[in-house]
Amino acid sequence: MSPYRILEREVLRWNRSFSLVSRQDPEGRTRRLIQECRLGAEALAAVLDDLGATGPLLYADLGTGGGFPGLVWALDLPQLLPAAIPLRGAHLVEPRAKRAWFLRQTAGALGLDGVRVHGCRWGETSPLSPEPAALLVVSMKALHLPETDVLAHAHAAFPGWRGPVAVVRFTTEADARTGSWDPGLGIPATLRAPSTQPHHRFAMLQDPDLHASLLISWHPSVAG
Fold it and tell me: Residue 193's pLDDT band (boundaries 50, 70, 90)?
């Protein structure tokens, strides 16, 4: 059985107890979420390669819930990332105890030994990992955490990391077409900026039936 079928099975098995996905057509919703996250992993890997990122990567997913995208990206990124960007570790941050338990159980069923589940909110517990890394990727699917909050706790969570950070959010095709996003995220209203400053780009997922793009905020350097 493929790992994605295992993930689908486990989400559906525990959905009634933990409300992991909508109870209206949970099978279809789970499959769409998995496909959406897989397309997102492909788009992210292409952007990181285009940005010339190098060095070991630490990955954190905030508010992972039913494993989206955290478990899917932990499966896909090792195969998709350029050789210059080995995945050093995947950290799933989920404050709800039942969902954190689900994530640990499912990571084990998927054989994801490198995944660590943290039953806390972002910034509540530090460090999450002292492992050295040259690049940090932080993803959010349903969580709308302001950019300042993400960056404020990054070095405390990963004290061994030094270098750029990419903050990745799932957005719609309309967002990408208009170049707009929620002003509450605290992201400057520009798609491009000098290389010493953050810059932002949309990466299309090429599927109109799903969330159709990623908004990637690339911070070349974040002070510790």
Answer: low
Q: Compute φ and ψ for 133, nearest 5 degrees.
A: -155, 155
| Cis previous bond, 82, omega within 30 | no
Domains of the chain: 38-219 (3.40.50.150)
User: 162-200 burial, b if ≥16 CB within 10 A, otherwise e?
Assistant: bbbbbbbbbbbbebbeeeebeeebebeeeeeeeeeebbb
Helix and strand numbers, DSSP H then E, in the chain: 7, 7
CA distances from 148 to 111, 126, 175, 205 (A): 34, 17, 21, 26
* DSSP-assigned letters across all residues of 119-154: -S-TTTS--S----BSEEEEEESS----HHHHHHTH
- Cis peptide upstream of residue 69 (ω within 30 degrees of 0): yes
Report which of residues 208 and 56 the model is more confident about.
56
- Which H, E and C letters describe 87-106, residue by residue? EEEEEEECCCHHHHHHHHHH
Instruction: Answer whether 0.70 is exceeded by the pTM.
Output: yes
| Tens-digit pLDDT profile for residues 147-164 | 999 999 999 999 999 999
